[in-house]
Queue: 3 jobs
Job 1
Amino acid sequence: MREKIIHKSLGLFLSLGFKSVTMDDIAHEMGISKKTIYVHFANKTKLVEAVTFRLFDTICSGIDTIADKAINPIQELYDVKMFVMHHLKNEQSSPQYQLEKYYPKIYETLKTKQFDKMHDSVLDSLEKGVNTGLFRDSINIDFISRMYFSGMSGIKNEQLFPSKLYAMDVRMENYLEYHLRAIVTNKGLQILNKFITSNQ
């Protein structure tokens, strides 16, 4: 039952927002009593925490699989983007913004976990790119990895990039191209241009 509650809550939180969805809403959607939810989660904060970290673990696992199978680091980044967008396909409520506003402790813990994961993942990807001649060998890999995380966090800021002006897939698409154009070699640029053309 715990897994079913997490699964149902995840869909509701992403589509309606962490603030909007109540324990009553979740119970009603599942056809169970609110008491049943409280057997597994002491309060809504504990449920939000479980849902948030479950989604994080799912996305991390997917990113690792993509990295292992990717033909090159440029395709890897695009595949990761598509995978993340698939898992956030119902994201209509700016969940990161709501998480930061209403559950700041969970948000800070998640941000630390995200940085650790993304930093390691992007470092590996950048090293592969340099070693295969797709990325310039003069780049500071650690610095670029940190910049990438900073940019990906920044485009999720609802105040800077209101969703009514920039849908999340548009933000990610543009940032990915911006990031890659700054580091690719001529060889890498040819591959990048193919991906941009195929995604239009």
Note: The two ends are 42 Å apart (CA to CA).
Job 2
Amino acid sequence: MRVVHSPHEVYALVDFERRNGNRVGLVPTMGALHAGHISLVQQAKLQSDIVATTIFVNPTQFGPKEDFSKYPRTLESDLEKLDSVGCDIVFVPNSEQVYAPEHSTYVEPPKVANRWEGEIRPGHYRGVTTIVLKLFMMVPAQVAFFGRKDYQQVAVIRAMVEDLNLPIQIVTCDTIREPDGLAMSSRNRYLNDSERSRALSLSRALKAANSMVEEGCHNVADIENEMTKILLNAPVDSIDYARIVDGDTLEPLSEVTSPAVAIIAARLGTTRLIDNSILC
């Protein structure tokens, strides 16, 4: 496994592999790797000849009151995990290599970024689209792998790739969960025992939404009310949203029609968690 810090070096490595006929898969991460990240690397290995993972905590996607400074940084452990599953290249740039002192160019996010996370975290998707485009340019892979847990993020990246005619395929991989149903997240480590227990209400609410649809309920208001009741009974400390939306546009629905997805963002103590489930 090659650990590379220079953008020029990683570009040269990937370009060399491509010119030799190899398909390169890219897994962008912010580190603090868990089994969900590793599953992306494993999927990339199945669909690629060479797998490159990036580790970079991107400052431009954090708001002024968010957790950039305390976001977990576990590089040594991350590298051990990546090596154990056969990752070929790990790109670990520093901030100055990604954002020069006079950096002033950013990517305007697509329309699908406007609601939900885009409303609650102003500027977040501007930072996401900017760093993802920069990583695609520095690590010119043919395919990139993202987890479905960040459903809106994947939708934003897909739209950016299409709008800008970027020559890269986006593969979305299933959410990896703990045995009790909690979606794996680097932020789960912030939860104390009480918060960890109450966080299970997110997956319970999503399961309830799926069950209602399977039983023939298509009234979105009824499903959203049930999701909200489960979250409040836990209780979570606050709910940013618990909604049923169009799976492509992420616009609200009044009736469940395909494609539809249930999305949740809730807070437990100082930790904000998101989760989702495709309904149909």
Note: The first strand starts at residue 2 and ends at 4.
Job 3
Amino acid sequence: MPRAKTRVASRARRKRIIKSARGYFGKRKNCIRTAKDAVVRAGTYSYAGRKQKKRNFRSLWIMRINAAARQNGTTYAKLIDGLNKKGVTLNRKTLAHLAVNEPESFTQLIEQVTA
């Protein structure tokens, strides 16, 4: 009886790595060892990037809210404090959308909170 080898599994493993490395430059796209290192490193960066994206968007929303609040004569901190005291449960993403796309509604909201 012939000896069983891991040809199918190893070929599949290598194909998966090469497929993940598609679009990379030089040896990184077709040399198994180099491609494997590149794919692992890319995975690490993409994992960290998914976490950073959340931080970056929250920061962007806060900047937009602060800019719109200052145009209406208040600050971000005073606005958030007023919203909390009034019991308004709008998240920062929604507030930033209002500030950018519907400035009249945002102004009315500020007037209700600061009054």
Note: The chain has a mean pLDDT of 95.
